[in-house]
Design goal:
about 400 residues; Beta-Lactamase; Helix Hairpins; Heat Shock Protein 90; 3 domains; five-stranded antiparallel sheet
Length: about 400
């Protein structure tokens, strides 16, 4: 190698050495490269399709208790929040299942409430899916629990309500026996017995009617019902009471309107509204029945100038046996079932009932029913109520 080539080779080696030194200095402060993250557990084939088909809220968790997959129902029920389980009781069940490799099943009532304040109640099952995954299934039992509560309350209320007239009849019978030598007292007690017997009979009949409404397939017996006939029959029912109190009963609105339904049920609903309007109105006031078509619905309203209903009571007047004024209801023979019957009739016909009331100017109850040219099975949009801005809808 000649001197010139040796010089060039030495310069190249020196440059390479310098560059290596610079790179070594730059990398001296860096940490070693991170290890690749462990792959996320994979769901077995077909599991997602099966869980998606279930009505339960379902989710799958990995070993870090992170949610690998969750159904939309689980999210809507608030079981998952930010990729983690939202309920500590389910978390504890998952840990127990991982330890014991057994299926856990329990009832859960979370703190979170439904819209409107109704409670959630779930039956939760936790089971191992694979070595790394755990599946959680939550079945909504809220409606079943609510119906059980309603049944218990209904039985308790019926027992209590029946005791009153039955007890009164028993006492009055003893009074008649003890006053056998006093014809005036016997007549007075006999009149009271007739009143209590009529009240008891009315209550039993309305209980039977309410039970039939809850089990009746209205769609199977529906026909086109003229609203003019329903209003005429309802008004005829209260003619005697209207005349006795000097009430001005008027029927107004549009004629020729029709709905699909059972005429007897619709007349019963309107009759109960008119009966309430007359019973809770002072003498020589006015009760107005009006029918109007609004979009795809027919609205039948009953307005009175009576004592009105407070804001607090408006949301409860459709409950069975609920009375705004118990003393007045006893005096008028009310059972507390009339408005519950109205609500069920409307529900059976694909409609609802609305109440607006002011304690100074009276009340307006409005039946909203699908018009005859609309399929009652199809939900119609809620039109604005004619009853006013404070209208309460029976749920």
């Amino acid at each position: 190698m000649d001197p010139t080539e040796a010089a060039l080779l030495g310069a190249a080696l020196g440059a390479a050495a310098g560059a290596g030194a610079v790179l070594a200095l730059r990398g001296a402060g860096k940490s070693p490269p991170a290890r690749p993250a462990a792959p996320a557990p994979q769901l077995p084939d077909g599991v997602t399709a099966v869980l998606s088909a279930l009505r339960s809220g379902s989710l799958v968790l990995d070993t870090a208790e992170a949610v690998v997959w969750a159904s939309s129902t689980a999210y809507s029920w608030g079981l998952v929040r930010e990729g983690r389980l939202a309920d500590e009781e389910i978390v504890r069940a998952v840990r127990a299942v991982r330890s014991d490799v057994e299926v856990a099943s329990f009832d859960l009532e979370p703190r979170r409430r439904r819209r409107g304040g109704a409670r959630f109640l779930f039956t939760v099952q936790v089971a191992p899916l694979t070595n790394d995954l755990v599946v959680v299934l939550a079945e909504d039992r809220s409606e079943v629990a609510r119906l059980d509560d309603v049944r218990r309350d209904f039985v308790a209320n019926v027992s209590h309500e029946l005791k009153t007239p039955v007890g009164a009849l028993s006492l009055l019978a003893e009074a008649v026996e003890g006053a056998s030598d006093d014809p005036e007292a016997v007549l007075r007690f006999a009149g009271r017995m007739q009143h209590e017997a009529a009240r008891l009979s009315s209550m039993v009949n309305e209980l039977i009617e309410l039970s039939r409404l809850q089990n009746d397939d209205t769609a199977a017996h529906s026909s086109v019902v003229p609203i003019d006939d329903v209003i005429a029959d309802g008004c005829d029912f209260v003619r005697t009471a209207v005349a006795a109190k000097g009430i001005d009963l008027r029927a107004t609105g549009e004629h020729g309107l029709t709905v699909y339904g059972v005429r007897e049920q619709l007349v019963s609903a309107l009759r109960n509204l008119l009966d309430n309007a007359v019973n809770y109105s002072p003498e020589r006031t006015r009760v107005v029945v009006a029918a109007h078509a609004l979009d795809d619905r027919v609205e039948i309203s009953v307005a009175d100038q009576g004592i009105g209903i407070s804001e607090a009571d408006q949301s409860r007047v459709f409950e069975r046996f609920y009375r705004v004024d118990p003393a007045r209801s006893r005096a008028t023979g009310g059972t507390g079932l009339g408005l519950a019957i109205v609500k069920h009739v409307c529900a059976n016909h694909g409609g609802d009932v609305v109440v607006w009331s002011d304690e100074k100017s009276g009340s307006t109850f409005t039946l909203r029913l699908p018009a005859a040219h609309v399929d009652p099975a199809e939900p119609a949009e809620d039109p604005p109520s004619v009853a006013g801005p404070k209208a309460k809808v029976a749920q």
